[in-house]
Amino acid sequence: MELLNDIKIALLPESIMVLFILLTVILSFTAGKNQQGAIFYISLGGVVLALLSILFTGFSPEKEVLYNSFTSNYFTVVYRSIILAGTIFTLFLTKDYVEGFGKSRGEFYFLLLTASLGAMLLCGANDLIVVFVAMETLSISSFALCGYTKSDRLSNEAALKYLVFGAAASAAMLYGFSFIYGITASTNLREISGFLSTYEVNSVLIIAFLFILAGFGFKISAAPFQAWAPDVYEGAPIPVAAYLSVVSKTAGFAVLIRFMTVLFPSFTIFSIILATLAVITMTAGNLMALGQQNIRRLMAYSSIAHAGYILLGMAILTTDGITAMTFYLITYLFMNFGVWAAIETLAIAAGKDNIDDFSGLGKKYRYFSLGLVLCLLSLAGIPVTAGFFSKFYLFKAVAVAGYEFMPVLLIALINTAIALFYYMRIIKVIYLKPANEIRHERAFNVAIPAKFVMALCVIGVLLLGVFASPVIEKSGVVNADIFSKKQVKNH
Amino acid sequence: MEFLSLTLLIFLPLIGAVIIFSPWFPQNEVKIRRFAKGFSGIVFIYSLFFLAFFNPMEKGFQFNETITFPGGKPWIEQLGVNIAFGVDGISMLLIVLTTFLVLLALIASKYSITKRHKFYYSMIFVLQTSILGVFAAKDLFLFIIFWELELIPMYFLISVWGSGRKEYSAMKFILYTFAGSVFMLAAILAIVYYNYLQTGVLTFDLNTYTYMKAFVYPTVFGILAFLGFFIAFAVKLPVVPFHTWLPDAHVDAPTPVSMLLAGILLKMGGYGLIRMNLQIMPEILKILSPLIVILGIINILYAAIIATAQKDLKKLVAYSSVSHMGIVLLGLGAMNISGVSGAVFQMIAHGVISAGLFMIVGVIYLRTHTREISDLGGLGQNSPKIMYFSMIIALGSLGLPLLIGFAAETLAFYGAFTSEVFSGFSLFNIYIPVSIQILTAIGIVGVIFTAVYVLWMFQRVFWGNMFDKWRKFHDASPHEMVVLISLIAVIVFFGLYPEGMTGIFVPTIDGIMKLI
């Protein structure tokens, strides 16, 4: 009975996901070849149902369930919503893409939903073991998703690379956990935090933190754990790449925020480590993106750079910084999926994904490419788009955190100027270059799901750009909640 | 006066852009152009109403407007950001200049724009909205938004309809400006945080930092923030080490866009210098005024000397723009009423004159398809109208008395001469006894160079023997006549009667300088 009660007060979305995951598995075995398409609708229904259950039942009050191993509060509600929204976008992108997979379509949805389940559990995990299990659920499903196109060499390479990096990162993280357990003799985050609040920082704790950071850094593709991203994004099926760049990253940030706020809120040395990582990540991402010819690799580096910006919000260790991160992740969901929808459309049509293949798009598909341009400008941080506001809010949070962050802020600002160059390069190709000869012959229509995703993303980008205030407020409550338990030592 | 809404004025062009870009609007080139001209005419007339009801003697901003959202909330509560507009004497004139030049640029677009009309006219209107927004913004955040919004239409206007290395130039333009504005963003965040530390209020309201400023910034902090602002505006103005985007962008942009670029966009830099650097941090400007004056002198002389060596007509005009913007810096560095008034006057005078010069270059290029000065000659024989119009504009550019350029330059130089802002400055602990008067005297030499290159250019293009290939060079068409005559009317009228213009902005500057 206690389990049922737990489900009722905190775990309803996860339970719905589990139910539908089982349903997809059964259907993928039993349904005939021609009915495999139905699995798409089933899984979409499941994710939408889970999202609705979060939005309308409200799990905001702080609750710990399943023997204190899972926390449900407003923070997890917001992050689980972002993850589910991202999953919905991914599902729409898969609609046409999986046609090429032949008969085995059902398992794809099964893996996708499982990964999302892992990501959702990761947001609220309140126990080191649960963190690890959730992380592995997300990771292992992602490995399989990356290699889903079995006959594609690049896809295989992506899967293997992701697996090797992921396994190493998980191992390092687990090692870090063992240190924490060694210090505190507990796996429960609440108990650990109680112990650490009186603990003096020493080398063991720093080492533990660094090891744990390796695991999280891998998920959010922060330097120096970012090397897998370009190859994986290039090789993996496109919806999977989009999924990794948004959903998986959001989950990584969620768990990072939880660790920082619950376990280490008062250790300023971690702030320095995170700030350094953030600066390296954004600079490396932006500089590497400059020379890319392949749009997917470019987006990989761009997503690394964005991880750097978001990490900055964590590094300053203020409530405002976390508000900024959350808002940034919400806007990032929209702007990034818009771009990936366009990439997928082109890949289906042209079979290639070089930047030059976008040439002449602006003339043939005026509104679709206008949407793409808006998303790119939003990524670059040009007003009046969501990306501008999220960047500005983040930078404001960094500025208000203290003058010692001014150099970091300047580096971040210069980085945005560098980033503008490669985003403008794509826009240039879309509008200025004459249409590609090869693609000209094969006229194609933009698929309805891609159009739908693009429309949603453009609406999101513009609405968040013009009416940012309510959403910032929504992202803000998250953190007041977390920090009410424990005051961050604000220098 | 209720019908005068700044918000409406600013977003009216945007509405025009949406109408033109919408799929329901006819694809017909003529219809699009007519609609665009009519629409921008309405915007211009509407802006004239503001000028008519503007009271120069009133202190601070007028036509104030703050948009509140349901529940009396500001735009972004968490940031303390309001959608607030207002104009004073300086921005009022610049707004009218903007609407005026956009109208003329659209009239001039008939011959130079031959493709993708819908896109072109909607981009011009987006550009107009963003420029008007910069001039009317009463909130630092809003200022940044419009400042950066302007990049996108400008990028397309240069790179789609331009010529030569247009994509390179457009990218250079956008990267320079964006990189500059990044420093402004840092400076704004720094002063906002400083204010937050002092008063505990997070606000981006401009008046808090200018008219109602209750504190003095510490010197080192102030200098860094000042430089942050200055870099952004120095790129835009442009000031010499940051000017290299300008010749490229001007040369490769189509004629109407060059007119707007030189006529209005450079003024955003000057406006920012006055609004931010002078009004927010006058005490720092006082310390750094030798730097500003010296940069101004370098601008005047260096660009003028470079201009004399140009073979390309449009490049020559572009460098003359840089040279004239040096006078704005000089007037600003003088830190007195006549100096700053001269700077503002020079911005407006140059806005009109340079638009005229670029129009003439466009007129010639349209007929000859060359901009090499050595390829031209004797064009005046077939086209007396173009020649005489060009003569008046060229003379205005070199500062002939009774034309608008003379009034502006004289005021700025007079201000610099009578300034007591510094009689020497120390550099690396060495005191250099060079007063602003001496520097100004050096700068005035630039005026001679201006006369040299303007007259020389005019003589080589319009006089002398005509090449056979230009026999068919025909005189100005009605569209070109309208543009040139309107510009000349302004040049001559305010040259004869400068008080008509100074009466509007000098009281504002008087008020600003009294606060310092």
Q: What does it look like?
A:
The complex is a heterodimer of chains A (491) and B (516). With 491 residues, chain A is mainly α. Chain A is 78% helix and 1% strand. Chain A has a domain at 265-491. In chain A, a hairpin with a 4-residue loop joins strand 1 (63-65) and strand 2 (70-72). In chain A, helix 12 packs antiparallel against helix 13 (319-350). Chain A is globular. The model of chain A is unreliable at 481-491 (pLDDT under 50). Chain B is mainly alpha-helical and 516 residues long. Chain B has a domain at 289-516. Chain B has helices at 6-21, 29-53, 89-112, 117-136, 140-149, 151-161, 166-199, 206-209, 219-236, 245-252, 255-280, 282-308, 313-334, 337-368, 384-398, 404-418, 436-462, 478-496, 499-515, and strands at 62-67, 83-87, 425-427, 430-432. In chain B, helix 13 (313-334) runs parallel beside helix 16 and helix 13 runs antiparallel to helix 17. The mean pLDDT of chain B is 90. The A-B interface holds A 323, 377, 382-384, 388-389, 392-393, 395-396, 399-400, 403, 406, 409-410, 413-414, 416-417, 420-421, 424, 427-428, 431-432, 468-469, 472-473, 476 and B 69, 73-79, 141, 144-146, 148-149, 151-152, 155-156, 159-160, 167, 171, 174-175, 178-179, 182-183, 185-186, 189-190, 192-193, 196, 202.
Largest sheet descriptor of chain B: 2 strands, antiparallel
Radius of gyration of chain B (CA) equals 22 Å
Structural class of chain A: mainly alpha
Shape of chain A: globular
Sheet with the most strands, sense and barrel status of chain A:
2 strands, antiparallel
- From the helix content, strand content and strand pairing of chain B, which structural class follows? mainly alpha
Annotation field: number of helices of chain A: 20
What is the typical, i.e. mean, pLDDT of chain A?
87
Query: What portion of the residues of chain B fall into strands of 2 or more residues?
Result: under 5%
| Count of runs of 4 or more consecutive helical residues of chain B | 19
Kindly state the percentage of residues in helix of chain B.
over 70%
Helix content percent band of chain A: over 70%
